[in-house]
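Running this now, will post back.
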Amino acid sequence: MLDGIAADPFAGQQEIADSLGLARPTVATYIAQLTRKGYLCGRAYVLAEAKRIVCVGGATVDRKYRSQQALQHGTSNPVNSRRSFGGVARNVAETLARLGAASSLVSVLGDDENGRSLTKHLQFSGVDTTRLLTTNTHPTAEYLAILNPDGELAYGIADMEIFDTVTIDDLHGVWPTLAGASWLFADCNLPTPVMAWLRNRRVGARFRLAVDPVSALKVMRLQGELHGIDLLFLNVQEALALTAADSATSPDALCKILLQRGTGAVVLTIGSDGLLVAEGESLTALPSLKANVVDVTGAGDALIAGTLSRLLDGEPLEEACRTGMLAAVLTIESEESVNTSTSSELIERNRHRLAGLTAERRKVLQ
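Update: finished.
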């Protein structure tokens, strides 16, 4: 049926029924099912784009203050400051677009200058912004990062109350866009009911669902089982909070618990030790890449975007994560939350840096 619709998207239901030898009510039922699952996108039976990633969650204005010397509590610290745009879902969407992947962002912005500037920047970067929501009850979200002189994060302060206004009805309103995605990426800036709704709607849908918790506090919005999540990105601190495991629990054991809770695969970052990729009964340890650290903000988001961009092209998860790690390093070596020089060509020019990345493979479920 899809082939026939692709050939003539303006054909009526009776015409389709006659060509297939079916009753018109039967065709109507099939079309309704295909629309719910994301294979069709509304009137004229427009087929969903073959490869698109839709990102749902945070979009913020970032303000970064890098200390010129070791931070001292209780007194004034001289800093260098920068303003940029951030938010996990926003960063992932922009990085995907810069890597050449079709990406859309679903988020909520304030009806203010920050929101308008953020939207223009996304459009200039190639991100589809037609499904952005606007409210006049809250300002556009802001994230403030205080960095040590070496670029490592000392404190992160976030005003994200606007995201608590996102409702299931809001996502119902953009469901054709969500349902038509190859991958749907969501961050836990979204309220708990919305995260649960996305996991439930994943069942029978066309898209696969990837999730990032954002923080050890917001990871608790993934309550109960993790069924419906195809790929979970998180760090050790977030994994400990989500599993309620003892702080002495090994990263390998954390991956095992998360898989047993129902997620399809796990990418667990373990700081300077690299990351673990757990899927099925296998676990692979990938050591970290050497980097000239300028600013770590956005590195995890670049890891996600680089990985999803390669999964979109059909690469296995472990290989996709290698590209994700390279994208993260290139972000760490820039001053922006999203390295504006990022491109598929830049990735390829730096792929030699992966040459010494030797994976260690072992069983995760024993």
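Confidence is low (pLDDT under 50) at residues 42-47. More later if anyone needs it.
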